[in-house]
Amino acid sequence: MLNNTTATMLHLKQLQAQMIKLSLDRNPFYLSKIIAFSAISGDLTHSCSILGHIDNPTNFMYNAIIRGFSQSKQPHKTFTWYTKMTSLGLSPDKYAYPFVLKACSRLFDLNKGKQVHCQVIKSGFLMNSHIESSLIYLYASCGELGFAKIVFEGVHERRVVSWNAMISGCVRSGKLVKEAFDIFHQMRLDCLESFDKFSLVSVTSACANMGALCLGKWVHGLVFRSGFCAVVPLCNALVDMYGKSGSLDDSCKLFDEMGVRDLVSWSTIIDVLAVHGCGGRAIHVFEKMEMVSGVVPDDMTFTNVLCACSHGGLLREGEVLFDKMIHGYKILPKIQHYGCMVDLLGKAGRLKEAYELIKEMCIEPDAAMWRSLLSACMYHRDFCLAEIVADRLKSLLDPDDLGDSAILSSVFASLGRWDDVEKLRRGARKIPGRSFIEVDNVVHEFVSKDISHPQIDEINLLMNQMVGTVTLLGFS
């Protein structure tokens, strides 16, 4: 009955009221269903409230809430409920561990993930395929490819889901993008099952992150030959890949050819147009989405269109969209939205307004916001406000962020604060730069001062020749 009639939370609460009247509100079976539905529907407050009044809760009830939080915007609360469950003497089962590990992955919490891994081993669930895949994804996401490979090598039957966990985890880490491609090629050789749409989404994202257009086109061909052209998430990934690889025309062409477009599709093409500096076109696409498609924008869509306004210096349009987001769609601004508005006001020279907007925010400003305003202050030569903003940015300074250190050092030098300049230079810790280049469908990775590339001698020789040629032409 619950499965058939509770289409919304309103229906669920009406049914729950009837259950109370009929004295069925203590039935464990019905309570489990209500908790599970509420958690999946996103009303975790309601689920937690019900569970808090149950004398003898079951594993199923706790698993439903753990699952809900692991997929929510508050994944850290997964651990709170996991601890509550174990403190009651309930042993986590094979259904609980994947969601706890998912929360670890989303938070990049490697230490907690290792603790859960130990508990999995003690509980005897290590051979469970869902848990194995969750562990692989966790370690790969956190950049621990060695640990991921250890778990992967121990998988008794490597199905496509295990390979996908390795590939998607590497892509998500941001540090193992090239390795994701190597694993995909190995998968095509070793895996008895064929790759699926999830494999291709991850590999497409890897191409986007590397800006590897030729490889991306090869993946697009693979998508076409595999019959996945109508898969919306895959098309979205391809639109993003072409945009990030510099091919705006291909990105727009693919978007126009999509038979079905969801919210992510529209948000992606708006983001692509924003990155390419096409602010006017991005706003036009946003308006078309509102009027023609019937798709309702979310906070991410507004982030993308406000970024488009920011890149294009479209202050008036940005103000209208910001107001529409708050009053038209009742979306509370997040740090990204405020950041776009501060950037827009700063570029327009309305520095006092930008500063007042930051002070009136109900959320704490981040370093990126102060950095944006500081750059605007220096550009418009408002040194009084620049000094105030620089001190705010200094209080949030990350020692590993050389960009902020360089900006602050330059500002303090302009203000004659040489002691602060010296402190910043002494405290900075240089992290080697990393870059990718695609040559003949092969992606090469370079790290600052690294000599491990197999063609390093030829590279150095060519560089010396280039420097010599430039010097002969009179450049220093």
TrEMBL record:
Origin organism lineage: Eukaryota, Viridiplantae, Streptophyta, Embryophyta, Tracheophyta
Cross-referenced InterPro entries: E_motif, PPR_At4g14850-like_plant, PPR_rpt, TPR-like_helical_dom_sf
GO MF annotations, alphabetized: RNA binding
One of the GO BP terms on file: RNA modification
PROSITE patterns xref list: PPR (PS51375)
UniProt keywords, alphabetically: Repeat
UniProt-recorded name of the protein: Pentatricopeptide repeat-containing protein
PPR repeats: 58-92, 159-194, 231-265
